[in-house]
Design a protein that fits this description.
The protein has 150 residues and is mainly α. The protein has a domain of 94 residues. The longest helix is centred in the C-terminal third of the chain and has 25 residues. The protein is elongated. It starts with 54 loop residues before the first helix and ends with a helix.
């Protein structure tokens, strides 16, 4: 489903927050008068939410956020909790169905686990990755807001 007037929360700590309507949400109209139980039609089967057109960018943003949540804690910056909170906001905004939430959470966990396996201590390379991922997250958030924000 698509939503209107929703604020897209970028996962870039201290870098960028994007706001704008992403889409219009529709709701089925309810009948004005209740019919008798025998005449009440069965409710329509829920249709699966269509992924937004920016889903690939959103999945990359979730993956980068997962990596930043791990590396932010590893490198002593204590920003892991902030990235996890921003991801939770992203899930609340974009998770219009259990399937979409699961896909986003999978991307986040993939980013976190991938760097958890690679880095056991903060190194100059890990700090460089953090800097690059902050830039990438800002770019992705900016691109989504500019293309799909209305």
């Amino acid at each position: 489903m698509r939503r209107g007037g929703v604020r897209l929360v970028a996962v870039v700590a201290l870098a960028m927050a994007c706001a704008g309507p992403l889409a219009a949400q529709t709701h089925a109209a309810k009948p004005a008068a209740a019919a008798t139980p025998a005449e009440t039609p069965a409710p329509p089967a829920p249709t699966p939410a269509e992924p937004p057109p920016y889903e690939p960018q959103l999945l990359r943003l979730a993956e980068v956020t997962g990596a930043l949540s791990y590396l932010g804690d590893l490198c002593g910056q204590g920003e892991g909790a902030a990235f996890r909170a921003k991801f939770a906001d992203l899930l609340d905004i974009e998770g219009t169905s259990p399937a979409i939430k699961e896909t986003l959470a999978g991307a986040f966990n993939r980013g976190l686990k991938g760097y958890e396996l690679t880095y056991r201590a903060c190194t100059p390379a890990a700090r460089e990755i953090v800097a690059r991922f902050l830039d990438e997250a800002a770019r992705i958030a900016h691109d989504i807001a500019n293309r799909y924000g209305g």
